[in-house]
What does this fold into?
Amino acid sequence: MTGPYRSEFPAHIADSPFQRLARLIEGQAPGAQPIDLAVGGPRHAIPEFVESTIAAHVGGFGLYPTIRGTEGFRAAVAAWLSRRYGLEDLIDPTDAILPLNGSREGLFLASQGAVSYLKKPVETPVVLVPNPGYPAYSVGGYMIGAEVVAYVPADIDGVMPDWDALDPSLLERAVAVFVGSPANPQGTCASREDWADLLARAEAHGFMVFADECYSEIYREQAGPPAGALEAAAARGSLERLVVFNSLSKRSSLPGLRCGFAAGDPAFLTDWARLRNMVGPQVPTPVQALAAEAYRDEAHVAENRRRYDVKFASAEATLGDSFERLVPPAGFCLWLDVSAFGDDAEVTRRMWVDTGVRAVPGSYLGAPMPDGSNPGVGYVRLALVQDEAATEEAMNRLANLFGSW
Ligand SMILES: Cc1ncc(COP(=O)(O)O)c(C=O)c1O
It folds into this structure.
């Protein structure tokens, strides 16, 4: 990698996992009526107040929105964060919240913001990303010519690597460390201690922590809500060097709304907003009004969680005997260890050809590590985004397939 040229991206992100999946099953007929569990787009009903709230604020489409967002949006997000994580007055809605046009654009632009803000005197900045992990983190790093370094969680139930085992010069050169919690695809979560430890390292080495928490509300009722990075910030009484990303795409089943937020370090957000202001990913004010309404309401979120719980229970009932650690504490994906059945891409292809269930090979979601290993190898990801009946049907078909493999 010599520059921010897309043609020089490493092969594993030159194409999205879904483009690679399309090539894998191209021209091959599904074995039954297709059930798409590949794309992680929530399909639950949208909240009932969407239409009336947009209608009440429709005049806002006639105005350019500001990059900093409306007071109403920022106040609703700050109140929600404070309730959810017990933050008291840590979050000042005037400068610690920024609306995002979905969290993806924010995650993509964050590394650029970190380089400009930190002005770290290093020749090649480092951006650390989880592996497997959401591609926007790495692509944002490559686009600024950073050295993108993938890390693998040290523990199968966790999300953090063994930071002490990394080459110390990497943290010294780091401008950004991305952590997904709940992690996609594994559904594992960071503890409050994990966050506190990472924030201490951010202070020692001078990098930004970008916490992607977009699955924070999609947890199993039995496991309870995952800790947030902001709780660790509250414990040390400072938001410095931390930005949390979240959105309504998963929480409220509103991926088409394109509304999320960044919350955290006011100095970073102020600097970043100046850059963003020239780029233009503003959020329309009627969308912000609806988002504020959604953050005030928990009933529709609890209903979403209940429905995912039903679907995970159905997966456990049909596949639980064949797969260990089937149901993750959070997220909406099954991350199935199919290594006993062979190559994950071939297993995915067979799932399609024999059962019509569309999944993503784990190796397409992971990146090669320096030693050539890929932590996604041997897994397939199934996003339980379809309704309960379709999910149960898919689980039954897969139980038959694996039972007779
Ligand atoms: C881990 C993770 N982060 C971020 C996003 C971006 O979501 P959005 O841009 O809809 O907020 C997604 C979407 O699938 C995701 O899985």
